[in-house]
Amino acid sequence: MVAKPGSRKMSDNTRLSVDVEDKDRLITELHQKIQLLEKELQSKQEAARPPDNAELKRVEELLQKSEANLAKLQELAHIGNWELGVQTIEISCSAESNRIFGLEPVKTNINYNTFLDFIVPEDREQVDGAIRSSIETGEVYSVTYRIKRNDGVCRVIQSYCEAIKDASGRVINIYGTTQDITDPRQPEEALLESEEKFRMVADSANTGILLIQGEDIVYVNQALAGMFGYTVEECNHLKYWNLAPPDRREFIRWAGNARQQGWLGPSRTELKMICKNGEDIWLDCSWSVPMLRGKPAVLVMCVDITARKRAESEVLKAKAQAELYLDLMGHDINNLNQIAQGYLEMALYSLDIAPAQKDLIEKPLEALKSSSRIIANVRKLQKAEMGGFPSKTVDICSVLADLKTSYSSMPERTVTIDFDHACPCYVPANELIVDVFSNILGNAIKHSDPQKPLNIDMGIENVIWDEKNYFRIMIADNGPGIPDDLKEKLFSRFTKGETRSRGKGLGLYIARTLVQSFHGKIWVEDRVHGDYTKGTRFVILLPVA
């Protein structure tokens, strides 16, 4: 039979009290939400700081312990959980779910039709209909049915299920619990054990837990009370909205009542609350509305994110300060560079200076030009990271053809560039794609012997890489080459080769950063395999538009 949560129907010899079922279901939901929140908190913390092997190992051990505790708790409560993928029609079952169905007690997947085969023919249609109805409507359901295990033993099963939706509201998974109710104990005994299990899980959790019904706090665990600086006893004498800042209390009170009356609202939100000592605290709160003693309640799972919020604030301040410095550098310092360059060029070409002394002007002039290029590159990177260069379709054949023309006519250098590819080759990029190839060509010329002719070959071909379609662009030169130990760190910031030219080590770092922003790859190899002295080949993979 199919019914809404809280309206259990079963034969007299299999009946459980509503309170026991609600408690058992609440335990399962509680433990699942604790796991999800702890995993999400772990992800946020790891994203905000460099990974530490010891910390990662500690977190992995905690997660393994948490999973083991959940499996043991399910075994003690004889409650398993499962998840049905709507697209795959596969059911992921916990060890306890498999044990209830007479299967090996390990976490595994079974086909949906295999699950239906366990159900006795008289009950199969109602269970299948309930699940399909939940997929179509997104509504929760509770169903009691009978199964016949492979060993021939018949059991009475009760399942409580709810739909999991994506951002568009489409049901993507069905999540449920399974309980064997064939041999229920006395309701009073089961209720006491259920209470004990609930408090064992809740009081040992690092996540704050608040359970309210009506306008009263039904339960608050040690973790949540500690977050606010209260004792559990003190919290029991508060109204839940007293934990919010004065200007938010009426809204929090309204939201708590509205959820119990059917208002969905966001299932997760970040809230600024207030501690006993008056200090602010930020909580990442997850909301659900379980049934408790036949009436809706509100279960709130809270993670203290105050440290993260403060860190985010500091990062924003630091970013604003860095942007201020960059604006000063990009505007004021660059203007001064331009003025100095102008005067030096005037002095170089208008004054009667001996050839041996011209170097005294040419050197600072080149330094100022290099400074201006660095400022321009930094501003480009900043703008690219802030989305200032929206992606569009770019013909890299046209880009390379233009660069061939520009770099083939270098003053006082013999540079030959071979490139002949008439067909358009479109990739998703932006105007900064020019800087990728310009940095590579510029480096080839800058780091080669000016007394020797430099030959550069450029080519494009279509390749499949990791089952995706790419253009592979190769730029090879007959310059001095790059030793193997330098190849590994060539694209890092401030890495420079040991050549006659003095660079700042930013060009190839910028090239790699841009290629990665275009979802491509870049690396360097020997033009002649195994002999780096014969020249260098840069390889760039860019996805086909």
Explain how this protein is built:
The protein has helices at residues 18-47, 53-77, 95-100, 112-118, 121-137, 187-204, 222-228, 232-236, 249-260, 306-350, 355-385, 396-407, 433-446, 484-487, 507-517, and strands at residues 2-3, 79-85, 90-93, 108-111, 141-148, 154-165, 171-180, 208-213, 216-220, 268-274, 280-288, 291-292, 295-296, 298-304, 392-395, 415-418, 426-429, 454-465, 468-477, 521-528, 531-543. The chain is an alpha+beta fold. Helix 1 (18-47) runs parallel beside helix 6, helix 12 (396-407) packs parallel to helix 13 (433-446) and helix 13 (433-446) runs antiparallel to helix 15. The longest helix has 45 residues, at 306-350. The relative contact order is 0.07. Mean pLDDT is 81; it is low at 1-20 and 499-504.
- The dominant shape is elongated
Percentage of helical residues? 40-55%
What kind of sheet is the major sheet?
A: 7 strands, antiparallel
DSSP, total strands: 21
Q: What would you call the structural class?
A: alpha+beta
Assembly state here? single chain
Work out the helix count.
15
Q: What is Rg?
A: 34 Å
Give, in spatial order, the strands making up the sheet with the most strands. Answer: 1-5-6-7-2-3-4
Explain the layout of strands and helices.
Elements: E1 2-3, H1 18-47, H2 53-77, E2 79-85, E3 90-93, H3 95-100, E4 108-111, H4 112-118, H5 121-137, E5 141-148, E6 154-165, E7 171-180, H6 187-204, E8 208-213, E9 216-220, H7 222-228, H8 232-236, H9 249-260, E10 268-274, E11 280-288, E12 291-292, E13 295-296, E14 298-304, H10 306-350, H11 355-385, E15 392-395, H12 396-407, E16 415-418, E17 426-429, H13 433-446, E18 454-465, E19 468-477, H14 484-487, H15 507-517, E20 521-528, E21 531-543
Parallel strand pairs: 16-18
Antiparallel strand pairs: 1-5, 2-3, 2-7, 3-4, 5-6, 6-7, 8-9, 8-14, 10-11, 11-14, 12-13, 15-17, 18-19, 19-21, 20-21
Helix pairs in contact: 1-2, 1-6, 10-11, 12-13, 13-15
